[in-house]
Design a protein that fits this description.
The protein has 261 residues and is α/β, with parallel strands linked by helices. The protein has five helices and 13 strands. The chain folds into two domains: 66 residues, Roll (Ubiquitin-like (UB roll)), CATH 3.10.20.310; 124 residues, Rossmann fold (3-Layer(aba) Sandwich), CATH 3.40.50. The radius of gyration is 38 Å and the shape is rod-shaped. About 3% of the residues have low confidence. Belongs to the FtsQ/DivIB family. FtsQ subfamily.
């Protein structure tokens, strides 16, 4: 049998006394952690409850001419289910709004506790494309309502994916026509890659596939030579190495004449 000395008994008693505060501290910490966890769980459960913090308000911002608040509300209404402030994914809201025809970009964020803020950038219509769509400033096709346009736009035509090319050509040559007080009503790139221009005064220019800049310059020279007779011109065919074939309005003068620069 082991005999304990007085010093051993005293050491064990002091050891028990020293451990007591640590045990009490650990128990207190466990209680605090449990209480905090319970509060957090209750708070999150409350916030994620579909009956709590519903997104019920919308603020629409941006320099808008064609998109209305009603348009955005209808777009959001097509989402199967709009969640709460906590649960709703803003990417879903953004994709829904960006599906609107006139919307080029949408930035969507949530504002505590029940508001959706939507900032929109609209497409800028540069031209009517293939008769039933629009081109924006980058030559990208979008399905804005042509009837909503508040000003006349040039009519551009071309094969699929040729919008940027046709718009770029229009931008290059249009200022040159303006120097003669002419404007392009329509610019066409057909499936055979041949160019055609219809001017606002009704003259049709057949330019073919090659040497576009040179043929346009040749027309300018011819137009200046025609003077007052230009009003009688129906079309000008410039698909020649030199010169042009001029067609006249029937009531003015029948037939064609070849004009060399």
């Amino acid at each position: 049998m082991t005999e304990l000395t007085v010093d051993d008994v005293e050491f064990q008693r002091e050891n028990r006394i020293n451990k007591t505060p640590h045990i009490i501290g650990a128990l207190f910490l466990a209680v605090v952690v449990t209480l905090i966890g319970s509060i957090l769980y209750s708070t999150l459960s409350w916030m994620w409850d579909d009956q709590r913090l519903p997104l019920s308000k919308m603020i629409l911002q941006g320099d808008l001419r064609y998109v209305t608040q009603e348009d955005v509300q209808r777009a959001l209404a097509r989402i199967d289910h709009i969640g709460t402030f906590m649960s709703q994914d803003v990417d879903v809201l953004q994709q829904s709004v960006e599906a609107l025809p006139w919307v080029a970009h949408a930035a969507v964020r949530k504002q505590w506790p029940d508001t959706v803020k939507v900032y929109l950038t609209e497409h800028k219509a540069e031209a009517i494309w293939n008769g039933n769509a629009l081109l924006n400033e980058h030559g990208m096709v979008f399905d804005g309502d042509i009837a909503q346009l508040t000003e006349d736009k040039v009519k551009l035509y071309g094969p699929v994916a040729s919008g940027p090319e046709v718009l770029n050509v229009y931008r290059q040559i249009s200022p040159e026509f303006a120097k003669l007080d002419l404007s392009i009503s329509s610019l066409v790139l057909n499936d055979r890659r041949a160019w055609q221009i219809i001017l606002d005064n009704g003259i049709r220019l057949e330019l073919g596939k090659e040497s576009l800049a040179e043929r346009v310059a040749r027309f300018f020279s011819l137009y200046r030579q025609l003077g007052s007779k230009a009003a009688k011109v129906s079309y000008v065919d410039l698909r020649y190495d030199t010169g042009a074939a001029v067609g006249w309005f029937p009531e003015q003068e029948l037939g064609q004449e070849n004009t060399d620069d």
